[in-house]
Each structure stands twice: as structure tokens, then as C-alpha cells.
From TrEMBL:
Residues spanning the membrane: none
Domain EAL, chain residue ranges per copy: 24-278
First-to-last residue of the parent protein present: 164 to 442 of 442
Organism from which the protein derives: Oceanisphaera marina
Superkingdom of origin: Bacteria
Name the record gives this protein: GGDEF-domain containing protein
């Protein structure tokens, strides 16, 4: 009997695997079409200077509402793209769209605004990122200094000297590099020493706990001071409560984003928000 039930469990496990693989395959096919037919969109979440309340930048965040699958979480979209060889085209689409939108805002008079664009780790491996960025900057007519690329602490990223080279090429173009979700990944002090980074983003899990957990608070404090001593700007993500904002400000954290300040929104809503924003 035990043998029999184990067999069923294995079968269930395997059919579960099949279902997941099937969903991913179908997602990949739909995603490819969505990229070609321009069915993806970007939302924008402002990043504020905590002292003055000024908007410093907006982070572009991928949204895909598929007729077949509904809203697909951006991390699943990225995972599917990575697995089925669509990552390069997806990243290029995101970059192109984000830069076009920013150029539009610059032309409307918000010339001081920057844009943060997330790039997936595998893109650093194909060696073409700097070329792609250069191309996109040229075709959108954007000043390089207004583009910030956000990368996450993925182990594979740091393993090769070529990633450092890619980052250096990007810096030479004049764009900025931010290390996203800092504190949750695999970065070591030697990475921080070797990589040409301009910004650290404190992961929202630390911010979420900082007002209730002294250890989280002390970690945030340490990251802020670490960033300062390495001459990097620091941004806190996921600010949801006034107390979090107050504490971050007291610690000298320069920039912040989160639902308390503004949620991610469609481009038109962001334009509206800029209209009422004096700087
Ligand atoms: P991320 O880059 O760390 O982006 C911040 C995430 O936190 C976003 O989730 C944002 O909506 C969410 N967020 C902002 N404020 C708050 C807050 O106060 N509380 C909480 N709980 N969450 C907040 P989202 O848009 O679902 O994106 C998830 C992740 O997917 C991103 O994390 C990023 O790693 C990835 N991603 C999103 N768009 C892109 C893209 O265009 N390209 C790539 N490669 N990755 C992307
Ligand atoms: Mg990000
Ligand atoms: Mg983040
Ligand atoms: Mg994150």
C-alpha cells in the first residue's frame, strides 16, 4: 500500500511539473507575441528626495495584462523570458519604451527628471548591453546622465570579469548603475569595492521591519553609512509608513520610494503628477 501511494504522489508531482512547464511554454509564446505587438506596458513609480519631497527619478516597472493569462507578475515574465531566450528583446523593449517616455517628459519641461530601468542579470552575460544602451540613447535623444540601470545581486552576475567590464562600459557612456534589493543577495564587500556602482537600494524587507525590529533598524543604519563612505547614493524601497520615512530621514537616507509616497502608476497619471509637482 505504501508503495502504491508513493507512486501516486510521484505521479502527482510529475503532472504538477508538467503543468508548470506547460504554463511557462504557453506564457513564452504569448509573451513573444506581446513584445512584437506592443502589448506590454510600463508603470512608473516616483523616487523622492526625502528631505525636500522633490521627485528625483521614476522607476519603470513592467506590466503585462495578457488576454489569456490575466496580469502576469513581472518576476514571472522575466523568468519566462530568461528561460526561452526572450530576455534580450524584452530588455530592449523596456529600455526603448522607458527612454522614449522620459524624452517626452523632458520635452514637456521636466528636463531634470531621471529614469531607473531594471535589467535582468543574464543580459550582462551577452556582452551587448552597452551597445544596446548606446543605441537606445541615440534613438531616443536622451542625455546619458538621466538614465539609471538597476541590477540585482545575482551570483552569476559577479562571477565573471566580463560583468565588471560591461559595467565599466556602461559607466563610460555616462549612465548610472544602482544595486537593487541590497542586502538580500550575494554581494560581498569585495564586490562593493570592485564594481563601479553609483547607488544602493535598500531592500524593502529591511524597511518593512525597521520600526519594530532593532536589528533591521541597525542594518538599515549600517547600509546608509556604508553607502556614504563609498560615495554612493542610497535609496530606501518599500516605504509604507510615516514612521519609516521619519527614521530613514533621521538616518540620513537621501532617497526613498514606496506606497506611502506614491504607488506605481501608468505614464499618463505620472504626467499628471508631474504637472502638480513644483521643484
Ligand atoms: P524591484 O525592482 O525591487 O521593484 C520594486 C517593487 O516593489 C515593485 O514591484 C514595486 O511595485 C514594489 N513596491 C513599490 N513600493 C512598494 C511598497 O511600498 N511596498 C511594497 N510591498 N512594494 C512596493 P513590481 O512592480 O511587482 O516588480 C517586482 C520586481 O520585478 C522588481 O523589483 C524587479 O526586480 C522586477 N521587474 C519589474 N519590472 C522589470 C523590468 O522592466 N525588467 C526587469 N528585468 N525586471 C523588472
Ligand atoms: Mg528596481
Ligand atoms: Mg528593489
Ligand atoms: Mg525587489
Amino acid at each position: 500500500y505504501a508503495k502504491h501511494s508513493r507512486t501516486i504522489a510521484v505521479q502527482l508531482y510529475e503532472s504538477g511539473m508538467d503543468e508548470r512547464r506547460l504554463r511557462r511554454q504557453k506564457l513564452a509564446i504569448a509573451l513573444q507575441a506581446a513584445i512584437e505587438q506592443d502589448q506590454l506596458t510600463l508603470y512608473y513609480q516616483p523616487i523622492f528626495r526625502l528631505d525636500s519631497g522633490d521627485i528625483e527619478s521614476v522607476e519603470a516597472l513592467l506590466r503585462w495584462s495578457s488576454p489569456e493569462f490575466g496580469m502576469v507578475h513581472p518576476l514571472e515574465v522575466i523568468a519566462v523570458a530568461e528561460h526561452y531566450g526572450l530576455a534580450h528583446r524584452l530588455n530592449e523593449w523596456v529600455l526603448q519604451s522607458a527612454c522614449q517616455q522620459l524624452h517626452h517628459w523632458h520635452q514637456s519641461g521636466y528636463y531634470w527628471l531621471k529614469i531607473n530601468v531594471n535589467v535582468s542579470p543574464s543580459i550582462f552575460m551577452d556582452g551587448e548591453l552597452a551597445l544596446t544602451v548606446q543605441k537606445v540613447l541615440q534613438s531616443s535623444g536622451l542625455d546619458a546622465s538621466t538614465l539609471v540601470l538597476e541590477i540585482t545581486e545575482d551570483t552569476s552576475l559577479w562571477d565573471t570579469a566580463s560583468s565588471v567590464e560591461t559595467l565599466q562600459q556602461l559607466r563610460e557612456l555616462g549612465i548610472e548603475i544602482a544595486l537593487d534589493d541590497f542586502g538580500t543577495g550575494y554581494s560581498s564587500f569585495s564586490h562593493l569595492r570592485q564594481l563601479p556602482l553609483n547607488k544602493l537600494k535598500i531592500d524593502k524587507s529591511f524597511v518593512a521591519d525597521m520600526t519594530t525590529d532593532p536589528r533591521a533598524y541597525n542594518l538599515v543604519k549600517t547600509i546608509v553609512s556604508l553607502a556614504g563612505s563609498l560615495d554612493m547614493k542610497v535609496t530606501a524601497e518599500g516605504i509604507e509608513l510615516p514612521e519609516q520615512k521619519d527614521q530613514l530621514q533621521q538616518l540620513g537616507c537621501e532617497l526613498g520610494q514606496g506606497y506611502l509616497l506614491a504607488r506605481p502608476m501608468p505614464g499618463d497619471d505620472m504626467t499628471e503628477q508631474l504637472l502638480h509637482h513644483t521643484r
